[in-house]
Amino acid sequence: MKHFEANSPYARDIGAVVHPHTNLRVHLEKGPEIFTRGRGLFVYDEEGREFFDAAAGLWCASLGFGNERLARVAYDAMKNLGYYQIFRGASNGAAIELSERLLALAPCPMSKVLLQCSGSEANDTAVKLVWYFWNALDKPEKRKIISRKGSYHGSTTIDVCLTGKPEFHAGFGLPFPGFLHTDMPYYYRHHVDGESEEEFSQRLADNLERLILEEGPETIAAFWADPVVGGAGAVLPPKGYFEKVQAVLRKYDILFVADEVICGFGRTGNMWGSQTFSITPDIITCAKALSAAMQPISAVLINERIFEGMKIQSDRNGRFVHGYTYAGHPVAAAVALETLKIYDETDMIGHVKAMEPIFLGGLAALNDHPLVGDVAGCGLIAGIEVVADKKTREMFPASVGLPAKLEANALKHDLILRHVGNRLAFSPALIITEAEIHDLVGRVKASLDDTLAELG
Ligand code: PMP
């Protein structure tokens, strides 16, 4: 029950808060859902109603909600130093240890770490580093960046240019010129009849090469990709995709930036999505599960080649002219370090690997459902494509408002489901147990059944 009388939290929210990714006018009528606490995979509203969150917030609360151990670490770090900057050579123990730890965990040899505060800042910084690097090598014309349609890379002005979703551009006059978008590797929806996954991957790699040649290889600085396309609702790369794409990039000396903001730290069944899909990036951006979402922190990992270029440019400029007040924040870094310790102590990767067949098997059983066209995932990330016609892959017209209907029906089963377009995206906390997976799948099935009944 919502209380809209003056001074209720609902009325105060409507009066004061602008919510991201929310229709502003509808929100004035409908008001917020207010959550007051969480435990494990569950969050609770003001009346104590319990909800299963199938997406761990925004793919991030990897250890679940509420965490005593991380709270103590944050408390101690705040009491001890609380804050200091890392500008002009200053440092702190947590920032040093976290950077070392990230280099030790990296999926391929990496040389240095830049600590930031969010996935968006990490990608924005990485774009600047790419430009800085090619300028250092006296190739200022190597400036264009290629990412994929359907991808999401953050909300700063530059991240929105990387993002390959028109709805993020509309109304803002973006993207800026020089940001190009190639095909999304979405086999289920975009393959032609009779085309194998390998053939589809080859076609996409050929399209990428054609784009590079049309634009001029000497103008292309970097290729940006998240191993699993979160922005498209957890779309997995088809067989051979990254192998073929990387061969093209190597041919034209184009940097590979892996956006591991969702995939990093176990989500795909390995520490990095780059390991799951055999990617050798020059730069990695990561965030979210780095601190189990308990503190805003992210990182950019760069290899030695990039760092060599940065040194040249920093000599020219007098110093490396970039940085945020909260970069290397000692409280956030301490929480991230402790999170990585927890992953290690509890063998989180082993747990994800053990849960993977149960999770994917449970969701795959929904393939028989009349509304389900495709189920695909790895580790503890998966997408379910909802269709009007299983055979033709035809989608429901937007007027049916299907994903929203499904989300509403899920809420009746106390399940928070997240859709991206026509795909339901699943990224539960990595600590999920076998019993919780069965519980989750049961609630998803019930939500699909209710929606089917509603559609008649
Ligand atoms: N990259 C990817 C792949 C993401 O999914 C996100 C956030 N969902 C970001 C970047 C941006 O991260 P943040 O919201 O922490 O700025």
TrEMBL record:
One of its GO terms (molecular function) is pyridoxal phosphate binding. The keyword Acetylation does not apply. Keywords: Aminotransferase, Pyridoxal phosphate, Transferase. InterPro entries: Aminotrans_3, Aminotrans_3_PPA_site, PyrdxlP-dep_Trfase, PyrdxlP-dep_Trfase_major, PyrdxlP-dep_Trfase_small. The keyword Signal does not apply. PROSITE patterns: AA_TRANSFER_CLASS_3 (PS00600). Its cofactor is pyridoxal 5'-phosphate. Gene3D superfamilies: Aspartate Aminotransferase, domain 1, Type I PLP-dependent aspartate aminotransferase-like (Major domain). Pfam families: Aminotran_3. Coiled coil: none annotated. Belongs to the class-III pyridoxal-phosphate-dependent aminotransferase family. PANTHER family: AMINOTRANSFERASE, AMINOTRANSFERASE CLASS-III. This is Aminotransferase. It comes from Ancylobacter mangrovi.
